[in-house]
Write a structure and sequence with these properties.
single chain; mainly alpha; 29% helix
Length: 195
């Protein structure tokens, strides 16, 4: 029996049990408490919030990832405002106004009293007036070179062909250009050849 007790591994050290569920449910409240306790004018950065949480609460190892997640989520939900690398509560009077995405609109210049604005023009091309007189066509401007625009027209072929005289052309039958037409079978007659 003594040998069995000697060969047993030592029991694992007992750590204080931190219920992660209770930690997660109160984590946003812990962050808000840290920002209120630090009470910095321009808000608190992530490092100072992390140090405060470690000094005040028994935080598990690697809680900085959890802190980053909750800070981002609270910023997206509108509970916190992130400005100049600092986090502050959304209802803080020192917090800058929350801006939307994109370019901000131009500030409007106040008009002096008594000035009435004309209605703004609608978008797009204005419709044609049906009662307007017809417009005269634009006069054509002569081109500077005197030549017509575009490709010149083909010249007509001479009667006798390109290089020959009309006498040589008349000697043989004139064949039309291109492939000859297909001959029908009915046009062919059977010729019997007897030996």
């Amino acid at each position: 029996m003594a040998t069995e007790e000697v060969n047993k591994p030592p029991p694992p050290p007992s750590y204080p049990q931190v219920h992660l569920f209770s930690l997660i449910t109160t984590y946003p409240q812990m962050i808000i408490n840290a920002i209120e306790a630090l009470n910095e004018k321009n808000g608190s950065n992530k490092t100072s919030i992390c140090k405060y949480l470690e000094s005040k609460y028994d935080m598990p190892a690697g809680h900085t990832g959890l802190l980053s997640h909750y800070l981002y989520r609270m910023k997206e939900d509108g509970e916190l405002i992130f400005w100049k690398n600092n986090y502050m509560k959304a209802d803080d009077p020192n917090a800058p106004p929350r801006r939307g995405r994109g370019r901000p609109p131009k500030p409007k210049v106040p008009l002096p009293p008594g000035v009435v604005l004309s209605p703004s023009r609608p978008r797009g091309r204005p419709p044609k007036d049906p009662n307007a007189p017809p417009r005269s066509p634009k006069p054509k401007m002569p081109s500077g070179t005197g030549k017509p625009r575009g490709r010149p027209r083909k010249m007509a072929r001479p009667e006798g062909g390109i290089g020959g005289s009309s006498a040589t052309m008349m000697a043989g039958p004139v064949r039309p250009r291109g492939r000859p037409p297909k001959v029908n079978a009915s046009a062919l007659t059977e010729v019997s050849v007897e030996h």
